[in-house]
Amino acid sequence: MSTPPDTSRAEASVPDVVSVPDIVAPGLAVLFCGINPSLTSGATGWHFAHPTNRFWRALYEAGLTPRLLRPAEQRDLVTYRLGVTNLVRRPTGRASEVTVEELRAGAERLRWLVEEYEPRWVAVLGVTAYRLAFGVRTARIGRQRDQLGGARLWVLPNPSGLNAHYTPGDLAVEFARLGEAAGLV
């Protein structure tokens, strides 16, 4: 296995940061890619751990998991052919605190993960982050024309509770569209 690009940025400056691990395995149907961990995720080591984050509920309501998983059960995702990572590993209070440089470096690390593990789909959670990380100013929610390391790309809405543009039901619909394309629902 080759070594991923170093995209760390002063994680030691964030108090009590626990590593939020990539949940990956060879041949996943979908690798979800968040923007970066919340401070709650940074403290627990669990993806989408903040109580207002709607990621886990969207997975369940879209039919991608047979039950509502808790963040502490993140490793169970691979049993459903799903994985999760982040563009940027540094926890912040808001995604807007992440720099464009960090997003671009994260896109390179994501490319490495995709080439190493070969998921069929990569779903980036957040259209603005996708646009900045990959330099695609006109990207919209849904399937993208481009590929990443052989994987097809999909952009989903950011499931953060701060994203008022999408209701929980709207998120489930968007996640289900991806699930259908990936042959999971």
TrEMBL record:
One of its GO terms (molecular function) is pyrimidine-specific mismatch base pair DNA N-glycosylase activity. Residues 22-167 form the Uracil-DNA glycosylase-like domain. The keyword DNA repair applies. GO terms for biological process: base-excision repair, AP site formation. Pfam families: UDG (PF03167). Keywords: DNA damage, DNA repair, Hydrolase. The keyword DNA damage applies. InterPro entries: MUG/TDG, Uracil-DNA_glycosylase-like, Uracil-DNA_glycosylase-like_sf. NCBIfam families: PRK10201.1. This is G/U mismatch-specific uracil-DNA glycosylase.
